[in-house]
Amino acid sequence: MQTPAPFEYERAVTLQGAIASLREHEDSRIVAGGHSLLPMMKLRLAQPSRLIDINDLTELQHITREGDEITIGALTRHVDLLESELLAEHFPIFRDAELVIADPVVRNRGTIGGSLCQADAAEDLSAVCAALKGTVTIVGADGARTVPMADFHLGPWTTAVQDGEMLTAISFPIRAGAGSAHEKVERRAGDWAIAAASAALWIDGGKITGAGIALSAVGLTTIDLTRAEDLLRGEAPSDALFEQAGAIASEDCSPIPDGRGPVDYKRHLAGVLTKRALRKAATRALS
What residues does 153 pair with on adjacent strands? Predict the structure, then answer.
């Protein structure tokens, strides 16, 4: 099947109007870029009764700094993340990831909100945002609430966004001594990852004061490597330490065999990419 089931279409003009429509129409879905949702609709893996187009809600398309926090609106395109000098300065991990996400056609239309809400385990930005310890803002008829990225993905294709709600933004704290990096292995340029690792480190006085590590494509959801993060805190960065973190990554992921490779190969990749990302993040933090 390569044609979607019948659906209604609405172009939202206000955020509250979009939320009201979500509440009114059961099984409706938000669409912005549509590069994840529309292929699923063509295969009838998703059959929304109504698509609510939010491309006119330009207030959700921004990358802004307020005090010690950077906030990215849910409608911000991949190309904006790639080209943002503000993100490159504070979170170079975004540019790392965007350079290996899909192709210019997808990056020109796809959004960070769509990527996160799709909750695909092989999706790069979910690991990036998890490693950076981001916090998402979700808005519904009763107001806004915030959810840490660690609690956002509940399972495959499932997030903390409930019926009648929308993800509107994701925020990241700016801390001194920060470095971050994303490493990925793919079969061809722009493909889904065979395995990918995102790492963020905060270093002060020669010691790691904070760490975030997340993996893509080696489990049913994005994997937060909390055991490896605990290992790093309070220690001086070193190849030996990152080797141990990589070993934990290989142990704590849960890949499945498929056309991209067997389990042992994916576990090996998870460890190698974790070490690479940590080394690059440490170099950037100390530069």
Answer: 159
